[in-house]
Specification:
heterodimer; A: 305 residues; MetI-like fold; 2 domains; 2% strand; globular; B: 371 residues; mainly alpha
Chain lengths: 305, 371
């Protein structure tokens, strides 16, 4: 992705002064936007080490402006001195964290399994269910992307109560699967399209069944695409707030809901809020930095031919 | 159920008449048993819930299990009666059955709820009240206001697009540390909008001590209250949302830029075009298809905007920042008004479907004209 560059901006410019000016402008703009992206994250992380005074006086730089303190993390029970003690807040936090992990991993896995199968079928075979052909079925799946969560939320609230899935992780998993399925199908269709059909033909001639060819030949090739789709789905599920806020109350609450519900009656504890927010964004920040390649691959699937 | 032909002629075909009659009978029998079982459970459950019989389950959960079993039987029936064609149908069936169960049924159910006066906090239960909710909706100034806000929020996508395009051009220029900047620019998309908007909106932009407010004071804005005046509050929400989603468009546009052939740009340079001319007459027209895709996807995501507003302003001041989703959310959370809220949601769905269909039509014509 980063190999080819189109350097028409540079090649246009002839005088050294203009060249330097353009360099200054480009790096200035890059630095400015990097600041815009990073400062909120920096603020969140540093605030978790501040005491009330440091927050209200707007101190910014640790060790210069203020002395870092484990205050925020202590209130979560995650600071070095409180990690060995029992803490109800920590138990609560870990429970929410696990809920988030289970729902997002569960939903992403389920979506990858049924989504890849459907995408493969749609790419390789021609179907006709009554008057629905491949294009119609594809459109049916992709059109789910338009559906706003708010349309499904209230009916699901009622239906989930009837089937005893309200406030359960499995209920959230099902809804999140529905939410990311169109995206997974979109990405995987693009993936399977790029695999030459001759590979499967050869496998079939060698005596593999249709499903055997899929699992032993096609899947290993499409694995990077699956990883991309999985990570994109993970991000969407981990950050989802609307369904979680409506459909969970005590057992299945996820991290975003816990973050949003911190505005207590006794005012805002900035430091503990910041610690919680840091804990909520850290896993995805790590994934984003480590697996950026796959994320970009997932986001650009099908958009550029 | 389905007739399929393989796209590839060379693949061995198994005509249906090669399958022994016994296997076919087994398939049909299995499907019949499963269907009867599913229907029987539904009927038993309806009778039990209507208090016309004493046999039944406390919840409808067994019906869900029965549906799953029925789906499995459907798959088995396909394979047993249609052989290899059935195996092919098996690829599609899970996703299809799942989506139908999760979308079609709740949406139909939603249309029914929309026509009732169901309030979870009242004791009387639900009652069919026809189009009352609809008339109430037409007279509701807050809903109209929320729809108007959605128009503004969607228009903000154009500004986001300009910024995203600029960033993509920057990343595509000859720079050092490209990968570093790309990762940094991508980060906002990864982070939970709720956590970030909470930290940014409630502390960074805090009126008294937030650094953003301090900066605004230095720049000459005496009274930097980001969320108290309707217009600034809307702009603040737009900025927070843009912060999260600009990377999304940026990445798509960057991919478009990198896929562009260098010969065209080279030719423009040889012809003596300036950078400005090259951009407007070569790069921008060539990027139109990608741009349209990015903008449409972004608008679709924008139409779902809710979480930032719910956590930050709860629609305030006075409903000025409400999106449709956040308004309906509060209609349920504060007033437990399921019937009316669902009517609002269904009306919104209809508006969205019409709007997006028009948008896609419009966009396809637009793109074709340019090429």
């Amino acid at each position: 992705m980063s190999v080819q560059t189109t350097d028409y901006t540079v090649s246009e410019i002839r005088s050294p002064a203009a060249f330097i000016a353009s360099r200054v402008f480009i790096y200035g703009a890059l630095a400015f936007w990097a600041f815009v992206c990073l400062f909120p994250i920096y603020w969140t992380i540093t605030t978790s080490f501040k005491s009330a005074v440091d927050v209200t006086q707007g101190h910014l730089i640790p060790f210069v402006d203020f002395t870092p303190d484990w205050k925020g993390w202590r209130s979560l029970g995650l600071s070095p001195d409180s990690i060995s003690q029992t803490s109800t807040v920590r138990d609560e936090f870990l429970k929410r964290f696990m809920n988030s992990v289970i729902t997002s991993v569960g939903a992403s896995s389920l979506a990858i399994i049924i989504g890849s199968l459907a995408a493969y079928g749609l790419v390789r075979y021609r179907y006709k269910f009554a008057w629905f052909k491949n294009e119609d079925i594809s459109f049916f799946f992709l059109s789910q992307l338009i559906l706003p969560p708010v349309v499904l939320a209230l009916p699901f609230l009622v239906l989930y109560r009837e089937v005893a899935l309200l406030d359960t992780r499995i209920g959230l998993v099902l809804l999140y699967t529905l939410m990311v399925l169109p995206i997974v199908i979109w990405i995987m269709r693009d993936q399977f399209n790029s695999i030459p059909v001759e590979l499967e033909e050869a496998a079939l001639v060698d005596g593999l069944s249709i499903w055997g060819a899929f699992f032993r030949i096609v899947m290993p090739i499409a694995l990077p695409g699956m990883v991309a789709a999985f990570i994109l789905a993970m991000v969407l599920c981990w950050n989802e707030y609307f369904f979680a806020a409506l459909l969970t109350s005590t057992d299945a609450k996820t991290i975003p809901v816990m973050v949003a519900s911190q505005t207590g009656s006794q005012g805002i504890n900035w430091w503990s809020m910041a610690a919680l927010a840091t804990a909520a964004i850290t896993p995805l920040a790590i994934i984003g930095i480590a697996l950026e390649r796959y994320l970009i691959m997932g986001m650009t699937a099908g958009s550029v031919k | 159920m389905a007739e399929q032909t393989s796209t590839v002629n060379a693949w061995p075909a198994h005509p249906a008449d090669l399958i022994p009659a016994g296997r076919k009978r087994l398939g049909w029998g299995l499907l019949a048993i499963a269907t009867l079982g599913l229907l029987a459970i539904i009927v038993v459950q309806i009778l039990y819930k209507a208090e016309m019989s004493t046999v039944g389950f406390d919840t409808w959960r067994p019906v869900v299990y029965a549906y799953i079993l029925w789906g499995a039987a459907l798959g088995a029936w396909q394979v047993l009666t249609r052989g290899e064609d059935g195996q092919r149908a098996l690829f599609l069936l899970p996703a299809l059955l799942f989506t139908i169960a999760m979308v079609i049924f709740p949406t139909l159910f939603g249309f029914y709820i929309a026509l009732t006066d169901w309030n979870l906090s009242s004791f009387s239960g639900r009652r069919f009240n026809g189009l009352d909710n609809f008339w109430q909706m037409l007279a509701d100034p807050y809903y109209r206001n929320a729809l108007l806000n959605m128009v503004l929020y969607v228009l903000a996508v154009l500004v986001e697009y300009v910024i995203a395009f600029g960033l993509a051009l920057l990343l595509n220029a000859q720079i050092r540390a490209r990968k570093f900047f790309r990762v940094v620019f991508l980060l906002p998309l990864m982070l939970s909008p709720v956590a970030v908007s909470w930290m940014v909106g409630k502390s960074l932009m805090e009126y008294r001590f937030g650094p953003a407010a301090t900066l605004a004071r230095h720049l000459g804005w005496d009274n930097p209250a980001f969320f108290s005046d309707p217009i600034t509050a809307r702009i603040s929400i737009m900025m927070l949302d843009a912060w999260t989603f600009i990377p999304f468009m940026m990445i798509m546009l960057l991919a478009g830029l990198q896929a562009m052939s260098r010969e065209v740009l080279e030719a423009a340079r040889v012809d003596g075009a300036t950078a400005w001319q090259t951009f407007w007459q070569v790069t921008f027209p060539l990027m139109l298809p990608v741009s349209v895709t990015a903008v449409i996807l972004r608008i679709i995501f924008k139409l779902k905007l809710a979480d930032i507003i719910i956590t930050l302003t709860s629609g305030g001041p006075g409903g000025a920042t409400d999106s449709v989703s956040s308004f309906i959310y509060r209609e349920y959370r504060d007033r437990s008004n399921v019937g009316y809220g669902t009517m609002l949601a269904m009306a919104y769905l209809v508006i969205i479907v019409v709007f997006v269909t028009w948008l896609l039509k419009f966009a396809s014509r637009f793109v074709r004209n340019v090429n």
